[in-house]
Specification:
six-stranded mixed beta sheet; 3 domains; N-terminal domain of TfIIb
């Protein structure tokens, strides 16, 4: 822990959780606490407080990446809650929590200190499934995309050797016939094979 320029605190005067400017601060012997004089940026109240470094817990995590799994550890803050579909970073890698084991059973969310194991998938790219309608046959395909990359109904794209036009997108919320959907929310893209004329 080092003395920061500003921190979020609950102000005793205006009772808002607000940014507080650290006017002066002194670290404790083990550098886990800081005695600081702070100024609330909401109401201007100046007061002295003791701030404790939140305790972190190392948890076992299994991270999947396109069929390969790796067991490692992730450090999370005690007192927080972790939930399925939470996005976080493990070192430099963007991950998505897919399952949580808490007290011997699978749950949707759990206090960090009660977690036995976390499961996650690498989320720097996602696989988007595509069904391509070509005459009387349907060809299954898939493409890799960034989680925030959007696909729009009406877009032309090349999948393998096929030039296709997107006509529907099945998202986690239902069928989309107009507009776009980010790759992270796509269940399947429905497209038709098209001929392109190059001029």
């Amino acid at each position: 822990m080092s003395v920061p320029n500003a921190i979020y605190l609950d102000c005793p005067s205006c009772e808002e959780q607000a940014v507080h400017e650290v006017l002066k601060g002194k670290l404790g012997k083990k550098q886990e606490t800081m005695e600081a004089t702070v100024k609330c940026q909401e109401c201007g109240h100046i007061y002295t407080t003791v701030v404790r470094e939140p305790e972190s817990i190392k948890l076992p995590i299994i991270v999947s990446d396109l069929g390969n799994s790796m067991k490692t550890e992730i450090e999370l803050v005690s007192g927080d809650t972790v939930s399925v579909n939470d996005e976080m970073f493990l070192d430099e890698t963007h991950i998505l929590i897919t399952a949580i084991e808490c007290n011997g059973r699978r749950v949707e969310h759990c206090a960090v200190e009660d977690v036995d194991t976390l499961w996650a998938k690498k989320f720097d790219r996602v696989i988007v499934k595509i069904s391509i309608n070509k005459h009387t046959t349907t060809i299954p395909a898939q493409v890799e995309a960034l989680p925030d990359e959007e696909f729009f109904v009406g877009d032309l794209m090349t999948v393998g050797k096929e030039n296709v036009a997107i006509h529907n997108i099945k998202s986690k919320r239902g069928i989309v016939r107009r507009g776009g959907v980010p790759a992270r929310d796509i269940v399947r893209i429905y497209a038709k094979s098209v001929r392109t004329v190059w001029s």
